[in-house]
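Researcher: Going back to the complex we discussed earlier. I've cleaned up the inputs and rechecked each line, so this should be the final set. Can you rerun the prediction on the complete assembly and write out the structure?
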Amino acid sequence: MSELSYWNLGESISLRDAFGRGLTHLAGKRDDFVLFDADVAGGTGAKPFVNAFPEKTIQFGIAEQNMVAAAAGFADTGIIPVVTTFAAFGVMRAHEQFRTAIAYAERNVKLCCSHLGLDVGPDGATAQMLEDLATMRAIPNVTVVVPADANQLMQALPAILDHKGPVYMRIGRSPAPIITEPAAGFAIGKAYRIKEGNDLTLVATGVMVARALEAAERLQQEGITARVINLATIKPLDRNELFAAARETGAILTAEDHNMLGGMGSAVAELLCQTIPVPMKIVGVQDQFGKSGEPEELAERFGLTARHLTSAAKELLKHKKSPQ
Amino acid sequence: MIDLHNCARKIRKLAIEAIYHARSGHPGGSLSVADILAVLYFREMQVDPANPFWPERDRLVLAKGHACPALYAALALKGFFPPKETIGLRKIDHFLEGHPDVRIPGVDAPSGSLGMGLSQGLGMALGSRYTGRNFRTYVILGDGDMQEGSTWEAFMAAGHHKVGSLTAILDSNGLQGEDTVANQMNFSPLAPKLSCFGWQVLEVDGHDMGQLCSALDSARESADKPSFILAHTTKGKGVPFMENQQIWHGSSTLTDEQLHQSLHALEA
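Model: Rerun complete. Updated structure for the full complex:
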């Protein structure tokens, strides 16, 4: 049984590596889950688990629709399938299986996908899933979790296993800086305020949280205090934390490595426009497909860097109403 | 000794009455699958209507979910809920959904979208092996399921994993939504295809109780091969004006006269 470990702030760790490590650790402690793989354990990070627990691994070959629907049936026996593949296949190809066989029937299945957003990098547009948050959060009964770093993922893993019902979790591929302390904990449905500020709020998810923190520091140098929220659960939303952000800072900038249509920014906008409307900006990929390149190059090309967030924040502040 | 013919006759009557009251629903496929359901629920499967979630129970997935009026009839006759409830089919304040829903007592899987049933059954069978509960899983496929690619993914995986506790029964009535199977997308011959995929293939008259029973016995004896029972059936079986008539595949509204004729034929 491997020791559960965390990383120090500032280290850079791939979430998929943490996923394999965390899952292997948990399998030594609890007997209530198995791993479903579609011949991509090396890519999803699940390989250490497969090597350590072959008897708890079920191989489906490259046939994701069958794997996802089979997970629904398997869950009926009381054991939780942790279903792993790349998001383009697990989310998109098997989308109807997830909707009907898992979500409609409220099966206790955890779909954990890697290869998300421009973070995928050189594999290019076919592998860069930019639509998963939009499609998954539109399905009833589904919880959508997006850890921001390896430490948070380590704590999200037992939390999603303990949660009864369908969960979709996004797992980044490229090394991502550690920005959360293990002591911060993780709870489904909780948004984490990781920097205080009153002029506006940056609500970020996944790899964009580190960039939002960097943007907040840049803004600080210009005398603007930005609150930063790590929105690690896209569904259900932490309404109270978002209401507080809207009330107390009066402007919301969202940031996600996802199409700006239908994703986290849309979710936040849907909530706030009906309750506490404030000026907003949604930073994401501008309704286009990605392309090959290194993740940082792609972030630059598609407008997802801290610098882009900084200028979007300043633009947003022009629309913020002055206090009455 | 349970009279399986009588069970099947009651399933057909309840299904037709339910469709009449709903003013919609699929009569053709409900009538073709009735004998298969009768044999499964009244001879083959270990289930407990008083405890629908009994972990050791045998599972049934009606992949051809549009035939659920017959499934609901079988479940009602088995005692999962009162037979009078079946006329609530498809009504807004009633629990009998237009396609199977796991919230209905006795329903083990949602279906209605063709091509997902065999995979769900495979998952149950793998779970049976993993948990050591050793229950059996039955999946009733329709001709339409055979045209969905994911069904073949499931055939491949079940053969590969040697899931002997899984039995698929094809209610092959030869007619699909718009035309004959032969015209729309012919998948014959099935026996050589499925043998190649590692399945034991058995072929029966799907309205012959004796043949269905022996095929299910052979399936039970297969330790490491999943079993595929190709059951040749007649769409609309038991109601002469519906038999082999394409128009009775789809969702239908029955007139009072048609209900009367159907019940009369089923009494005979």
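Model: Worth noting: The radius of gyration of chain B is 17 Å.
Researcher: Good, that matches what I expected from the previous run.
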